[in-house]
Amino acid sequence: MNLHILDDEKFFDPFVQKLEALGLLGNNIFVVKECGSLKYIKRQDLIYCRMCDSRRIGNTRHYAKVFIHCFTRDLFEWVYDNDFQELNWIIWGKDLYLTEDLFEKQTKHIVKKIKDRRSAIELRLTRARHFFLNIDLSKVYTKVANVLTWIKPEYDYAVTHIKGLKANHLDFAYMFEYDAEFIVSQFLYNRNFKHKKISDFKIVLGNSGVASNNHLDALEELRQLGFEEIVIPLSYGNEKYIKILQKEIERKPLLTKITYLTQFLTLHEYLTAFYKSDIFVSNSIRPLGMGNIWIALLLGKLVFMNPKNLVFDFLKSMGLQVFAIGELESVEDIAQTIDVKANVDIAIDFLSTARIDAMYRNLFSATVRNTSELHLCTSTL
Looking at the record's lineage, which domain of life comes first (predicted)? Predict the structure, then answer.
């Protein structure tokens, strides 16, 4: 039996749907970190208990595998106090890049304005608590057997920067929201940008209203280039950041038309909006919005990225033709020479359902254990 420790997040329902479709659901139980009411998880009947009910979780060594979905600092003490047959850390990003300088120059000014003092105090208190409890964080990370990512450079970054982490790498991706071949079949890629002038190109910038997208810095790169339209998805994210971002854009207007996507869109609506563009620009330094990058590649769009991003060189090593943001001024020439079909084919192969299914079966299949003491219980919800 496998144990999953997770937050109340939207990923849960499609994740368990995937497990159910593959006949793996019965091999896995789920414990939510939060002890209050659930906001995002709909399949609450599948929640075994909460982290605050350690009695129901029982001896962690009874589980063949334990998966932590996003290893945030609130779990350090729990890992320190328990032993595991196999502890797996599924990296989300925010659990890895907390201290990394993620913001470009102009975005840093916004971040300073919205800095959450309570979070800073909370972090100091957490550090103090660890000090008084005499927790050696290197011993916490030593317990991790495997780090799960869908790009190996992220694993390499983790083992290089985290003291005590000597885990192996396993491939894993939450690729259940869409099927790559279905997307390509519904939205046939084309070369409609091949003969366009720079003033005819439409851009999608970023994936959400979070500062890691470095929107303002990207817009500064685009300021003098005169594209037709820049679409900025802001349907979710940090509300304070979104308000300040929009004010800053209004204060320093571009010649290019700016359109904000502020309403929630279904996947099909989002794909349709995406399909109408020619270019996707990602200016994040940490891997962020990878789903958007893959969608852009599947739809035959031009992809420009911050070259500091760990993913940038990884994608190029796969043979994908992606470009640094600084190359946007040469977009007309790039559009003439890029092999769009090659990008589409590589993306389809990487995102294939068969590949993702194999990952799920390898990671979450049954292991025969004595699990008679485990049973689903919703009375604690």
Answer: Bacteria
